[in-house]
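Today's session is about reading a structure prediction critically. Students often jump straight to the picture, but the first step is always the sequence itself: look for stretches that repeat, for charged clusters, for runs of hydrophobic residues. Only then move on to the predicted structure, which in these notes is written as discrete structure tokens rather than atom positions. Here is the chain we will use throughout the hour.
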Amino acid sequence: MLKIYCEQFDFAALERAFDGETESDCNLAAEIVIVDEEEIRRLNSETRGVDAVTDVLSYPSLDNIRGVTLKKADFPADVDEEGNLFLGSIAICKKRAEEQAEEFGHGYLREVNYLACHGLWHLLGYDHMTDEEKAVMREREEKVMAKAGLTR
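Below is the predicted structure for this chain, in token form.
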């Protein structure tokens, strides 16, 4: 089970859709914050050296976990106060999500969930630096979004 901590949105459908997508012996958790353009630019600049607004940034807590069965005992320092294995944090830019929702012709809620899904796959060790990686990540994103009932 995945628990998403977010004060601004309820990601219950996305949490349920991630069930069975990764193997673990414990519940998993992630934090999502919705930020303005100034904050996402600051984060992007400070953590990636890119002075630009972006749509989503992911900050994984765990390394080398793509496709690995996650065991609580392997990451004792990353277990939160509720006993969940903490995967990391995601920042989503509200304005970019609004713009992209309009650009792609779907609602803001769908776009925020897509960006959250995208960020969660990054936390789980997936990337899109090569065409092959991108294809794998897009397939996983579309599967989860369909399970959540958030298709285009």
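Discussion point for the tutorial: Helices lie at 12-17, 37-48, 94-104, 108-123, 131-147.
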